[in-house]
Amino acid sequence: MSGPDPATLLEDVRNSPEGPAVGAFFDFDGTVIAGYSVAAFIRHHVKTLDLNASATVKTLLAGTQGIETEEDFVKFLGITLRLWAGRTPEELEKLGRQLFRDEIGPSVYPESWRLVRAHLERGHTVVLASSATRFQTDPAAKALGIPHQIYTAVEVGEDGRLTGHPDGRSPYGEGKAAAVKDFAAEHGVDLDQSFAYSNGNEDVAFLATVGRPTALNPSAGLRRAAAERGWPAVDLPGRPWTTPLQVARTVGTYAGMMGGFVTGLGLGLVGGSRRAGLNLGIGLGGDLSLLASGVQLDIHGGHHIWEAQPAVFLFNHQSQLDVLVLGGLLRGNFAPVAKKELATNPLFGPLMRLLETAFIDRSDNAQARKALEPAVERLRSGVSVVIAPEGTRSATPSPGTFKKGAFHVARQAGVPVVPLVFRNTGELMSRNAMVIHPGVVQVAVLPPIDVSSWDPSELDERVEEVRQQYLTTLANWPGED
Predict the structure, then answer these.
(1) Which residues contact 313 (CB under 8 A, 6 or more apart)?
(2) Nearest Cα to 41, choosing from 19, 63, 10?
(3) Which of 14-18, 246-250, 324-328, 425-429 has the lowest mean pLDDT?
(4) Is 125:187 a contact under the CB 8 Å cutoff?
(5) Domain named Phospholipid/glycerol acyltransferase: which ranges (predicted)?
(6) Spatial distance between the Cα atoms of 333 and 280, rounded to a whole number of angstroms
(7) Which helix H or strand E contains 132, and what residues bound it?
(8) What topology is assigned to 294-475 in CATH?
(9) Is 299 left (phi over 0), alpha (psi -120 to 50) or beta?
């Protein structure tokens, strides 16, 4: 049956009872992420020549033939686990984090992320319930803030290495349903009030364990089962396809950015003011690049940008598109903050030096204040600075841990921090992509935060409070009540 859209699902969650007695069980592959996480591991092993040809063929054949029964899954799992035999759990944990950052994380459905956040805000017991191993699911659970997991346990031998066998029954099909019931009994979860989400027809028994099941992005088999049982079925929009036109527009985007910047800078220098030229170049370059890319800005709270300048502008970093958004949003009178290694980058170094970037030495922990001095100097000269407090691009819509450097800079310079929340730049240009897709980038500018009175002993807590503002804003976007 045709069911509600993702926005209606969110509303249902927000109107549901509060508290940990309500569970929210999310399947992983195909439900929280697009595609299958094991494929990233197989691609890695093939690329690094760490996988023999016979194992590769067997694994790919098992996948292409399809998995219809629990017996099929056990066979596929056996092939996969044999690839890991002899490795330590620590090796696979490290590999899992790397693959999540580079490949798996960017495929998280934004709509699924918002559902997870909505359940967490209601105080529900949220569980990632998957037949995958913890090497696949654990990085996702940590990044999404999911506190509980159900996964396939793997056997570790006396030598501390994987044996190539599962440890007990895998939570697949009826096994997942049984695991959910056991979890609910152990954690005091009322399954009749609980939610579950999955995309695969193997999860009919899993969905049937709860009172509020949803076939999310369902396969044909699950769609039929949902129609028979009266369950809602909701399709999620996929990632946009890359076309030759979008490649051409992206080339035009970078050309517009550089052309606008150079033109504005030149006009400013003719007028005798380098800073006026930089401001004009940033604004003109931002406008031309956004126009060429087909990206528009939908801004909430834009007046906060001008309330207290200079300031430290914070933004949640998702992709290279953020740079264009910053130019179109702030217009000028700001300098980026970047790690000092970028100063010698042959492609970006010259441009960043022209932008009067404050290069900081993030490895200089022993002299942290000195390392931050370039950014403080920019602020004291009347120029705002822009910092990504995560220090790198996040793999999912959920911002990572905030570093404290941006807040130290603001305190030393005596200026406020202004949070810029970018909702969907990662959807129009994913973390490691080169091509920009047209669309609307949503930006929320939060009120300036005075950090001058913050007690240094409470800095970790206060920084986390700011990060929570991002999470709350992203999950409850202004104007969508």
Answers:
(1) 305, 326, 330, 334, 384, 385, 386, 387, 417, 418, 420
(2) 63
(3) 246-250
(4) yes
(5) 311-425
(6) 9
(7) strand 125-133
(8) Glycerol-3-phosphate (1)-acyltransferase (3.40.1130)
(9) beta
Edge-to-edge strand ranges of the sheet holding 125-133 = 148-152, 125-133, 23-26, 195-198, 212-216, 233-234
Amino acid letter at 404? K
Alpha-carbon gap, residue 352 to 360, rounded angstroms: 13
Query: 6-234 falls under which CATH superfamily?
Result: HAD superfamily/HAD-like (3.40.50.1000)
Q: In this predicted model, what pLDDT tens digit does every residue of 83-140 receive, in sequence order?
A: 888 999 999 999 999 999 888 998 999 999 999 999 999 999 999 999 999 999 999 9
Cβ atoms within 10 Å of 55's Cβ, excluding its own: 16
**Pick from 10, 474, 475: which is nearest to 214 by CA?**
10
Contact 313, 385 (CB under 8 A): yes
Q: Please give the Cα distance from 12 to 19 (Å, whole number).
A: 15
Q: Whole-angstrom Cα distance, residue 272 to residue 279?
A: 13
Instruction: Tell me how far apart the alpha carbons of residues 70 and 76 are, in angstroms, rounded to a whole number.
Output: 10
- Burial of 75 by CB count in 10 Å (0-12 exposed, 13-18 middle, 19+ buried)? middle
Concatenated DSSP letters for 317-329?
--STHHHHHHHHH
